[in-house]
Specification:
The chain is of the alpha+beta class. It is 45% helix and 11% strand.
């Protein structure tokens, strides 16, 4: 697996907020995961579908994808359609925009390290304007395009490549995250981007390259290789220990409000520490008061085909009937027939209430107190 750049665009949120983490992470090996490979597979499928829609001669990669499924197919269809909508919108003011897929974008001169580049999933360039579109397959974290440092790095690389030809002034950063029903756009002027590069990116990159600056814990820790045994992150989360969790009824609303923004970080950190300790214990490390045991498991068939035949031979039906899910049913019938036959039989129930920060883009629900006020 290729080694990531010291100042990679994808990790820029972290090393801008916590510059010394860049050098610290060099001490840790990359750990591939199924989630990352699924994301890579979907990016490949997205690129193929966009290129095909543009009329390019391309090879269908589906058979070579390890994690291809119906959801991935649907997500990539939506991404292709969205990109083509963006292209059509740009064509309203420019007859022949430049559309680039999986484009290498080098921002080395802004961070001072040669070979600092990223790959833009889709870049659309036209007279005076630039679109930088990034596909996110992740489900865990809602990603915003607003001043997104990864997309800003990509935009800097695109401006370097094309500004002299297209006189770029307006930039649109886009996150397309279908599994979270999230399409986030942020529009900025070129001067705003260059100011950010000079005032924020370059100083942080200099500190990161030198291994200097202060360690800082926060949301950016989530994908840090050192997150499990980072002392700053531990201190950050252990501050919550000053609250008496054995008597939550004694906490007033202001104390609850102070704790809420930290709960997710605390839970994530605790889980990371437990996973780290388990791996160390499996390698022979002894933690006082703890031992490794075999967890609970469920019974499984050794051979499902043999089981089915055995049950059928005994005169029983080994299978259960189940109505196809909406996605599978839509693919079976085709979208047009699905809408014709079942459009009036589909509904979307209200989602379960979730407490989120005010910065979340979703509209607030009516609470019991709100209903009382309206009456």
């Amino acid at each position: 697996m290729a080694k990531h750049s010291l100042l990679s665009a994808s990790a820029s949120q972290r090393w801008i907020a916590c510059p010394p983490s860049a050098r610290l992470c060099e001490e840790y090996a990359d750990k591939p995961s199924e989630y990352a490979q699924a994301g890579t597979d979907c990016h490949e499928l997205c690129a193929y579908k966009v290129e095909k829609a543009l009329g390019w001669k391309v090879r269908n990669p589906t058979k070579q994808l390890s994690f291809y499924d119906e959801e991935m197919d649907e997500c990539s269809d939506g991404y292709r359609d969205f990109v083509m909508e963006c292209v059509a919108k740009v064509k309203e003011s420019c007859d022949d925009p430049l559309v680039l897929v999986e484009q290498r974008l080098d921002y080395s001169r802004y961070v001072g390290i040669e070979g600092s580049f990223g790959t833009g999933d889709c870049v659309i360039v036209a007279d005076g304007m630039l679109y930088v579109i990034d596909y996110k397959h992740g489900l865990g974290v809602l990603v915003s395009a607003e001043k997104n440092s990864q997309l800003c790095c990509y935009a800097l690389g695109a401006v370097d490549l094309f500004d002299g030809i297209y006189n770029i002034e307006r930039i649109t950063l886009v996150i397309y995250q279908p599994r979270r029903a999230n399409i986030s756009l942020y529009k900025m002027e070129k001067n705003e981007l260059l100011t950010w590069a000079n005032d924020t990116l370059a100083p942080a990159a200099k500190l990161a390259q030198e291994g200097k600056g202060e360690f800082k814990a926060g949301d950016h820790c989530q994908f840090c290789k050192a997150k499990t045994n980072c002392r700053k992150r531990a201190e950050y989360n252990l501050e919550l220990a000053k609250y008496d969790f054995e008597m939550p009824a004694t906490l007033d609303d202001s104390e609850i409000a102070a704790i809420l923004p930290r709960i997710d970080d605390l839970a994530s950190w605790a889980s990371d520490v437990k996973d780290y300790a388990l791996q160390k214990a499996l390698s022979g490390t002894k933690f006082d008061g703890f031992k490794v045991v075999e967890g609970r498991s469920n019974r499984k068939y050794t051979d499902e085909d043999t089981v089915a035949k055995t049950v059928q031979n005994a005169g029983f039906d080994p299978y259960e009937q189940k109505l196809l899910g909406i996605t599978a049913m839509s693919q079976t019938l085709g979208k047009k027939k699905f809408e014709e036959l079942l459009g009036g039989l589909i509904y979307k129930p209200a989602g379960k209430p979730v407490l989120v920060p005010e910065s979340d883009k979703r509209p607030a629900m009516n609470t019991a107190a709100d209903d009382f006020k309206e009456n």
